[in-house]
Structure formats: C-alpha cells, structure tokens
Amino acid sequence: MLTMIQIKRGIASLFLILVVFALGACAKKQETSTVSMHFDNWNDIRAKDIARRSKVSSLGAPEKADLHMVVVYVGDAAKNWNRRTDSEEPPTDFTFDGVPSGKVGAQVLALYETANGMEFYYGSGEAEVKPTQTSELSITVVNVAVDSNLKQGDFVGRFIPETGTPPTARVKYVFNPPGGKQMVVHQGEMFSGWMQLFSLSSSILSYSSDNAVANELLKSATIMNNNLFSASKPGRAMRIVVPAHSLNDSHDYG
Fold first, then answer.
1. Of 35, 116, 136, 183, which is least surrounded by CB within 10 A?
2. Of the candidate ranges 122-126, 178-182, 209-213, the one whose mean pLDDT is the lowest
C-alpha cells in the first residue's frame, strides 16, 4: 500500500510536470513587435500630390481643403483621427504595439473636405515585422478619388423589415479603395431597428453589417438613395437631419 508520504510526493511531482508544460506552452506564443509610421504634414502631402499630378495634366488652382479624417490600419488593428475643432492638428505619427511578427499589410486613408465635396487620399504597403523589434513602415498617400456636390446628413428612425424582427446590429462604414482592401472607417449601431446613422451620397463609401436583415437596408451604395424609403412603400419613413454648418453652405440637399 502507498503511504501518505508517497501520495504527497506523487501529487507534488504531478504538479511540477503541469507547471513545466504550462511554461512551455507560454514560451511557444507568437512573439510580437511594434510598428511605427510617420507622415509629413498632411497639408504638404496634398500639395505635393497636386503638384505631381499637375505635371501630367492641367489641374488649375487647387481648392482650399481641410483634413477631416485619418484612418490607419496595420494588419487588423486600426487607429483613427477625426477633426472636432478648427484648431485641432492631426497627428503625423502612429504607433501600433503587439503586432504579430512576419509580413504585415498597412493602409492609410486621409479624407479632405472642400467647398464642393471631398477628396480621398489613400496608400497601402507591407513590411516584414521582426520579433521584439520596432519596424518603421513608410507609405505614400495619393489622391484616388474626388466626390463633388456630395449630399450628406444624419438620418434617424426605425427600420422595420417586411418580415421578421427589427434587427440589432453593428453597422460598418466601409471605404472601397481602387484596387485595395476594404477599410472600415467608422461604426454605428442599430438597436431593434432604431438607428441614427451618418450618410454620404458617395459611391466610394458603402455600408454593411454582419446581420442579414440589416443588410437589406445597407446593401445599396448610398443609404440616402435606398429604395426602401421610396413612395411605393408608404410604411417606410425616415427623417433627414442636415448639419447646421452644411445648411449655411447653400448646398442643394434634394
């Protein structure tokens, strides 16, 4: 028969083996790194791109533009900046910690607002990230699209599908760069069909959701033109709220 001392020794040995296996599993975790990105002054980036394109074709005098948004992706991690005040300066340095080692892709979107619309500046690249080191990633950002005479606004209301329950879902605002990977630039919420979402009449922006019912509303290129709210469906309604600063710009919102 086993004595109490032998049993205790056996338990202690088993515990030691489990600790060794646990430490070994921790040691096998993928090592991570830091990715650092630096950009020039954002107004200079736009000015240099306009000058470059002017050598190819006559662009005329550039419109005054204010940087409205910057979104930076490294892998699946994202950081963004949105202008809240006229005096706020956008950052030119972005740092991502905990990036898995190996090849990683990055994307950058800078959205400039002019008197007549918006300009989309985009760039992408990739780098080989080394374990436990800081990798510097450089990306050239250029103009990829201009949307003039944009209609914009918030719409508030409840979406009730023709069949089923009004959805509760996360709504993704997606930028579709030419030849690039889709970027989620903003997210909103829909709760039991109730929502307050921002909308732009731009074909380069789309909206999506993991909820199939919510996608019935979001599947068109622009929510503001969605036929779910047409006169042929009197049970549907929405209220467009145009921002006060846009009303003062004498735009035609239709």
1. 136
2. 178-182
3-state helix, strand, coil in the chain (%, to 5): 20, 40, 35
**Quick one: residue 54, left, alpha or beta (phi over 0 = left, psi -120 to 50 = alpha)?**
alpha
Identify which of 190, 246, 180, 247 has the alpha carbon closest to the alpha carbon of residue 215: 190
pLDDT value of residue 231: 52
10 Å CB burial of residue 235 (0-12, 13-18, 19+) is exposed
**What's the whole-number mean pLDDT along residues 4-32?**
51
Q: What is the pLDDT of residue 91?
A: 93
Q: 149: helix, coil or strand?
A: coil
> Using alpha carbons only, what angle is made at residue 220 by residues 217 and 226, rounded to the nearest 5 degrees?
65
Predicted structure pTM score = 0.70
CA dist 101 to 24, 33, 104, 165, 196, Å? 19, 6, 8, 44, 39
- Tokens coding 41: 């002054």
Query: Residues near 131 by Cβ (< 8 Å), separated by ≥ 6?
Result: 31, 32, 33, 101
